[in-house]
Amino acid sequence: MTKSCLILGLAVLLTNCAAPLALSDLKAVPQGEAVVFGRVEVIWEGKPIVWPETGFRFFVQGPPSIFQIFILPDSASEEIHYVLSGDGSFYWHLPPGGYTVTGFQRGASGGGFYRGRIFALFTVPQEQSVVYLGTLTLDFFGKGDQMRVKDEYDQALQGVKSKFPELGSKAAKNLMQLEKPL
């Protein structure tokens, strides 16, 4: 099997792992769960990456060809995988409870993967049906903070309203909290 076939097969497998978490339409939100939204922004050498909708693309050199994050519910022992696409905006359905964005994995088209630690905490409150988590920015080879959470509530709310008008115009703001350095 060729290297490109292996990479493509891996991309399909990783994309399929994200399916239960991503919200594709309002009918997919199970009863008792909330819609959480925000963005994971990956900056590579000073430039934000926009991912193809499949979450996979080829590079000879440079930025990663695939990027996924791992989310661990407090009530589980197995991580949920989510592959980034587009500008990294996400719309998930999750039951109430605590969660940790434990880390990321980036892959290069030339082969090989690198896994890194994030450790960002967030909570899905029981009484909320739509929750904004913020923009988690991961800056590779940049100056200043390499990891931060930004509040882009107004812009994100406009995006969720245009994509899912049935959700209404209100959302609770519950930004992810990064682990404090020792």
Quick recap:
The protein has helices at residues 3-17, 153-163, and strands at 34-44, 47-48, 66-73, 80-83, 89-94, 97-107, 113-124, 130-140, 147-150, 172-173, 177-178. It is mainly beta.
Low-confidence stretches: 1-20, 55-60
Rounded to an integer, what's the Rg over CA atoms?
A: 16 Å
How many strand units?
A: 11
What is the helical fraction, as a range of percent?
Answer: 10-25%
Strand content: 35-45%
Biggest β-sheet description: 6 strands, mixed
Number of helices: 2
Q: On the 0-100 scale, what is the average pLDDT? A: 79
Order of helices and strands: HEEEEEEEEEHEE
Distance between the amino and carboxyl termini = 46 Å
Globally, the shape reads: globular
Instruction: Provide the structure class.
Output: mainly beta
Can you walk through the features of this model?
- The structure is a single chain.
- This protein is mostly beta strands and 182 residues long.
- The protein has helices at residues 3-17, 153-163; strands at 34-44, 47-48, 66-73, 80-83, 89-94, 97-107, 113-124, 130-140, 147-150, 172-173, 177-178.
- The strands form 2 sheets. Strands 1, 2, 5, 8, 9 and 10 form a 6-stranded mixed β-sheet that branches. A 5-stranded antiparallel β-sheet has the order 4-3-6-7-11.
- A hairpin with a 6-residue loop joins strand 8 (130-140) and strand 9.
- The longest helix has 15 residues, at 3-17.
